Records
---
Amino acid sequence: MQRIDSFPLFVEPFHVDFNRRIFMGVLCNAMLNAAGKHSHNRGWGIPDLMKEGYTWVLSRFSVEFGRMPEMGETCNIATWVNSAIRLFTNRYFRIDDAEGTPIAYCRSVWAMINVETRKPADLLTFRNGELNTWKVSEEEAPCPIADMRPIRNKEATLARSLQTYYSDVDINGHINSVKYIEHIVNLFTNEELTRGIRRIDIAYKAEAYQGDTLLFFTHREDANTLLVDVRKENGDVCVQSRILLHTAPQENNEDKQTTK
Amino acid sequence: MQRIDSFPLFVEPFHVDFNRRIFMGVLCNAMLNAAGKHSHNRGWGIPDLMKEGYTWVLSRFSVEFGRMPEMGETCNIATWVNSAIRLFTNRYFRIDDAEGTPIAYCRSVWAMINVETRKPADLLTFRNGELNTWKVSEEEAPCPIADMRPIRNKEATLARSLQTYYSDVDINGHINSVKYIEHIVNLFTNEELTRGIRRIDIAYKAEAYQGDTLLFFTHREDANTLLVDVRKENGDVCVQSRILLHTAPQENNEDKQTTK
């Protein structure tokens, strides 16, 4: 069986921002859906796992862009499993433009948990370690972006608080992973978003639920980098993130190579 | 040239709510994207029109559901132009399940405006009335739902106020038509959303912009019907809407016919 799956993504006019670039949330949703289909094609999708009482949980997500896909463009999202250790698996992504030139890469880390006990499964033994048979090494399919650096956001100050609603919640009743990204992107000014986001690192720490108030604590790590913690009113940290902006405005259709 | 276009819609796991039904916002976005592609295929898409200084503006949108598409299902969205009078065109939609059984219908009304003057174009003469050549009569393609009834919401009281952000704004810098729908759906309780939405009527009256505070005024017209006005702080009404709930919980996969 092939180990890398690819899914086309057409950038619809109702899915782009005022710069005619795809919304980060729409793109990340498409990536998670690609991951879901890659798993489903192997009988390991969330609906398959739920029959056995398990589900996938996203733990870390790092995506780095040369540029964002633009209105009318057809991109391609490739995804594969790079490795698995006992409790975590690394899933990588590459986004290519229509000519096959990479414009973004992503590294993500997932756990599989028991839906009752919330305890992680041992991925090396679950279903006799079948997950290992789809691994694609770095040599076979490179993902040339750095790993996530630790995020320490001790000096953060409250930038925004938000009530959560029905539309923030996923199939499991938790605040959707991508909704955090949307709310974090909304913290930036239009001038900053016109420059564009070069990289997002996000670590998911604790679940939040519909109706929870989310507090967004920010700290500017350097001129182009914002750290954002999302906390609940009780102080629990749900998400830690680092967002790196491009230093100059993204030139539409000119900077086609991913920055590497 | 064929006059009705159809587009498949696969219901992704990251696009469904806690009832495993597609989010209303995701579905309405897919419908507007289908409209965009139908227009684009005839050289009348927003990017085409913008070259001549015009754009499409959604004026009214009525959608009635037998049931909502569910996770893992592949539906089909068909759309066509039913009629055009001088300043408005009626676009209809039908959503079929994988077996071709209709599960929803939609009637929408659009104007084409000059982006500078904001004045509507005469659709009967624009490009020599070419729009009329794609009309599909009610006999050829029925859309068996009622027209929108007038919405009078004089007794409404303030239910929620919301700040708008970058992610609420479309390519033209206005609050996105579908974002109003998402915010309106968020006004309902989970119990009501489990019963499900049977019909939404929405009339777009005035534009709002990023940073505007939106005020949601509601009035219960009857046991199953909520009227929602969305107003700006200066009192301008942006949107008037009527939402009709199903009387009993939607049975997954049982009530396949649209209510007619």
---
Amino acid sequence: MKDKPKISNAVIKRLPRYRRYLKELQRKGVDKISSNEFSALIGYTASQIRQDLNNFGGFGQQGYGYNVDALYNEISAILGLDREYKMVIIGAGNLGQALANHTYYYKTGFVVSAIFEVNPKLIGMSINDIKVMDYESIVEYVEDNAIDIGVICTTKESAQEVADKLCFAGIRGIWNFAPIDIEVPGHVALENMHLTDSLHSLAYHMNRMDDNSQDSVSKKK
Amino acid sequence: MKDKPKISNAVIKRLPRYRRYLKELQRKGVDKISSNEFSALIGYTASQIRQDLNNFGGFGQQGYGYNVDALYNEISAILGLDREYKMVIIGAGNLGQALANHTYYYKTGFVVSAIFEVNPKLIGMSINDIKVMDYESIVEYVEDNAIDIGVICTTKESAQEVADKLCFAGIRGIWNFAPIDIEVPGHVALENMHLTDSLHSLAYHMNRMDDNSQDSVSKKK
């Protein structure tokens, strides 16, 4: 465990959001911010913010607030965003192509090295200057190029097999967009993006809103 | 509040997942399942499952287990998936196009009626037989066609303005893919898909794994 603290998953989930808001503050030229000001901005309570950031030793100073640059850099380092990651995308369908074209990732250190496909019509194409390669060669490619992350954009039927292959090839993390829960060995990190789960949650909340249409509390997530 | 129970957000977040697994069981011809069997499958504890499903009056019978069809239909109804929703997508970039092409939604009752764009080169095109229309006409269109959900696939700079327009036009739910937190009135449901937040969580977990590489607990989310 070295000397890094054990941090709850709930806190980790909030860190990227803190980071986004800090980046916005940097852009606006803000140097420091109190937990109360930060609270008004981000929508968490000031005490939640203090508690969250205390997990990392606490960067705030009583009566001064948080140094925006220092906190941004510290959170970036905690998230591991102070280095570059090499990704491959598996599946050159609509979603795979959309992600390959999403230049935002490159700006933030996530570089797509290759896209893998089984469809012979797509193999050999380039998307956003990234080569679409034969899925057959994925294990060799991941090994030879020390790829960090596999992004699964296949059907749910293929997702587990793809994950198994990636893990066999020594991948360190899997970002799964297939609408199924996949299993990975304990040393591989897994993050699921279940789009339909999110859409179904939205449907639920829309129907609850109809039931409670007399309320008008501001909703912020 | 009518007579529907108040259910925590954490439970709601798990319902689409229960539903996915129940659908899988239906496909395999399974009629009933005990909470222990369900637990082995879905990865929540049996007591968690019983507690979650008790929120809805509990569909299980002691010594029998859950009726798969009944539970599936009940969860679908709770989520509001027993009806159809009309969606519009705003932004015909890569992500907007990927979502428009994602036929899975249609099968599950989410129908994309139109895509809205500001780029004159894209207006007039069709994507998956869905018309790309001028963003200028969005308020009229949403009003006239009783659109339920707006899917924001714009840049983060435009997202709030688009949300404001959708809310003005009477939208009931917003599915936001722009990498920014938007604000909506209390009667509008909001669900965010922050792709980069998820990727940053993945980076964090990958780095934690490196720290703990001696552990090998199975990880399942």
---
Amino acid sequence: MSEPVYINSASNKKIKHLSELLRKSRARHEAGCFVGEGRHLFDEVPRERLIAVYVSHTFYEQESALIDELSCPCYAVDDVLFDRISDTKTPQGILSVVEIDRPNQKALTDKEAPLLLVLDQISDPGNMGTIIRTGEAAGVDAIILSPGCADPYQPKVVRSAMGALYRVPIIATGKTDTLIQRLNRLQTDGIWLYGTDPKDARSYDEPDYTRGTAFVIGNESHGVSDELLRRCDESVSIPMQGQVESLNAAIAAAVLLFEAARQRRA
Amino acid sequence: MSEPVYINSASNKKIKHLSELLRKSRARHEAGCFVGEGRHLFDEVPRERLIAVYVSHTFYEQESALIDELSCPCYAVDDVLFDRISDTKTPQGILSVVEIDRPNQKALTDKEAPLLLVLDQISDPGNMGTIIRTGEAAGVDAIILSPGCADPYQPKVVRSAMGALYRVPIIATGKTDTLIQRLNRLQTDGIWLYGTDPKDARSYDEPDYTRGTAFVIGNESHGVSDELLRRCDESVSIPMQGQVESLNAAIAAAVLLFEAARQRRA
């Protein structure tokens, strides 16, 4: 690959597009790509999904060999302009534009006993990123998002997922009907759908999660919506001591998923 | 109790002290108190530890009955001044000054099989707050902090702990020697100290946590320090799939603590 194209103007079309990809959910979904900031998120991108790379002049001077060997378009951006576009306080000088993976549901249930996570209106991006990263570590096969969830491709989620977003299949649903259809299909395929409900539910460590399992995790303040809870095969709760009213959504997801992982190892 | 004292000046001594309690760790430790912001953290304060309450004029007008029945000093602060002092973007109009609880170690090990958490250089305040809240839910008897941990009484920790900070005994240690002494004492008292180490350790779900148990949780980037790890009775690891390098510290703490809680329920 040849040297990068130099960009020094904020009115450059590429720069405007990059800035929109960082700031607007609609731009990401129309273009089918999102942006990973920093060196770690560049190193972890599967190379076939790397659409373009933007580096600061300074970064390019220091790492030209790394950039010149890339087979995707690369742009070297004026340092001040780069810092202005970046979503972080201390930019590392590299932004990767990455193709959004669109997994199909069939592929997920082809696995013998898939482990799935359904997020219901998880709106905090840091929480969502942590859940995606925790999900990968616990071995989830995919994460399904309800309408009202944070956009998983926004910079804060991408950052806190720390690369897991490149690897965990994410299925976002735009309407409740679509979500319900997908859940119905999972149930038809023999996957057991567990809601999480603090009231009167069976303790989470009692069911057998070695068969196809999907956990529905609700929003921290409101829990799983009644509509979803009604459609679950069963509800489980995490017994709590003290006076804590609810667990953080990422913590609840971790406790359930690692219990499933524990049973599946045994 | 009579009506509150009205304060309209930023140079008022009480206001300066309150502002220092919110902003400076040293001020909190010298005064032996910290500040809980908002209605929820006011409602949850054990009344015998409530030292003073500051409300905005507007809050007082709406909730005078609530404030007038308090038996601690109460101050009604000009709205603009109140907003300026507050640590949150959308202040709820009430700040509670709360006595710091100083638990002694003996009381902790008096319990038959205590469940303890040792935090090693957990510097992110949001993470620390989540750990304290998760700890209460899982039934920890106390949390011991190494030097280099975030100040547990800073506003961000207080906020994310959501009241658990009023109930979970916290033992902060200022020097590594003091921490080591405390851990030695725990071990003498028969408490088994588990380090968490990603390399070659036994899976976390194998040991018996129904006896006295203390988990040492390390900093997310560096893990548990070698010095502490050497002093642990045993190390455990959380088996991970995918390419995740480490779990978030709060997630790791949750997985270990709820495994202990599960065993203790059985």
---
Amino acid sequence: MKTYVTGMARTRTGERWDVSIRDLAAEAAEEALDDAQTDRVGAIVVGNMLSGPLASQENLATIVADAAGLVGVEAIKVEAACASGASAIRVANALVASGEHDSVLVVGVEKMTDTSPGHTTAALSLAADGDYEALHGATFPALVALMMRAYMEKYGYDRRDFAGFSVNAHKNAMGNPKAMLRRPITEEDYMKAPIVSSPMGVMDSAPICDGAAAIVITAEGRFDRRQDRPAVRLLGSAGATDTAAVATRRDPLWLEAAYRSAKRAYQLAGVGPDDIDVFEAHDAFPAITVLALEASGFAKPGQGVMLAKCDEICLRGRLPISTMGGLKARGHPVGATGVYQAVEACLHLRGEGGSNQVENARIAMAQNIGGSAACIVTSIYGRED
Amino acid sequence: MKTYVTGMARTRTGERWDVSIRDLAAEAAEEALDDAQTDRVGAIVVGNMLSGPLASQENLATIVADAAGLVGVEAIKVEAACASGASAIRVANALVASGEHDSVLVVGVEKMTDTSPGHTTAALSLAADGDYEALHGATFPALVALMMRAYMEKYGYDRRDFAGFSVNAHKNAMGNPKAMLRRPITEEDYMKAPIVSSPMGVMDSAPICDGAAAIVITAEGRFDRRQDRPAVRLLGSAGATDTAAVATRRDPLWLEAAYRSAKRAYQLAGVGPDDIDVFEAHDAFPAITVLALEASGFAKPGQGVMLAKCDEICLRGRLPISTMGGLKARGHPVGATGVYQAVEACLHLRGEGGSNQVENARIAMAQNIGGSAACIVTSIYGRED
């Protein structure tokens, strides 16, 4: 059964001390339902990683259903580390495509700034392999820094070669009123940034923040086609895993889960890398962006970092990425990120990208990565008109 | 598309200090795959509530996939408080019924005894409404005790009237080699038990424990029908919610989410309460059992507690419940419980219930309840031969 994105919304990211996690989620939920012009969904699926440790709330989907005025509907929270958002979309899509519900609301939400940064960093480490990574003190920046260093040594690159990804992300955030870091950075800013975990600095790292995004997924024939905007269809999506710990992989520089999920999503959508007009990459760290570009078929191994140039990845480049600022500058509220990516990809398909609109975008891909590339969901959306 | 339970397993419950959460989950996963005679599933869905706070591990489905030798498959964790297990079954079933995967493994797992009981009780309170219940010190026993007292006062019952549920559960656990509390209790034991939250005592309360259970769900036509046992089909299931906080419900003694989910499951399965041969009730507390029996159509409001008699609920009664000990005596590893219930219901349909076999069981229902009856999943399974 064909499924469509019939409503979408995203809140401003940043330090949202004005709202609790339930109200932040409800803000996105209600706006997405308004956008879909419906108040009837059969279920709500919430993508969230850390509401227990950081917001003292589990059973979160029921809480959000209640806050959003949807008491009665089925409610399920989905957790897959930083890939929770896209995994929630996968679940909602299956509930619709199987005929269980005509329409399902997905809300991705994370509240990360109501506690100390140290506590939040420790909580994020729960996504690493507890016994073989986190217990030994490895945080995510540390794990990815090792991957970045291995890449630089294997292929002979310098730190500076990665700068273009962050420069592009910050530039694009300027045109996104919902983004957290709406200011430009230069290559020199990138190079001079304080080191977080060598060779990675602050300008390699996506910021912790609060945020919520929502989409409504509806079965074909169960909504009225609108005259004022094109329909957006979920052409295909897939999830895949790798070993949880980086050290146990045959090749730590090959993202097998990105390869597998992208391959299957391409198959289902009937497209290939050359057909993608917009790519919302999971740019939590540039090294991950590079490896994901390679595994998803956009560059050969060892050449992904060469895409960090404006004619490649800028809004008018060959493959625009991080079009609304990406994780780096829009912000990375972890469980919400995958839903933000979906919304941002679909904005271009609707022609609602504002000053950041990618011209003539017809097929958009979003890739959401959890753990150290341990679980990855790739989704491809298409414009119908 | 019709879907079947083609494999199932459950571990011994109790204090499983011999294994970590990943190994406990893998134990059930591998046994269920063996039972299904397959090593090929497209995804793993893990039902779990508290792996973050209690086992220092999120991204749990990827971790379990890795531990169970399933690296590569899609992996999703589902959280819906104590209804996490059945919600995971709902997600897996949708992934199969939508055609995304031919076969999906569900693992319910919880590790609750590696920390202090006080810490575990606090973590369980994360399933209550954080702002309106938990923050004020309300634990689950306290919330349910208020419901039990209201029931007793409204309908004129005594504490003793509830005893039969716990007596039945402990009796049935004697015949279940995987159960935690394999010892009988009498009505006097029930009455003399230390009070936890008046009017509820220890013998009203399901024990905290570790445990994992697993089932394999497969699409019709994607598995070989076996000669040595009947096929078990998931006839219908549904999830529904009520307000998160008990105090905001119109009637705290009416479980609207049980009513809604049971009604839809009956519709999908084409059966009614009179057709149910086995009912795995969510007997975390007898007051919840009573209200669930009423809302699910097995008794009129105010009369559910009258079913606490052997000719009603025992293995040879009119509606056998808690047939393998229920939450009360098999144990309640919260995120795993819904999967234990599914396995136990299906054991009767396969004729593999051992000394606890319910004769001629053809239709079995399981009901999994999260929060103070805030989110509820009802599932109905049928025997085909």
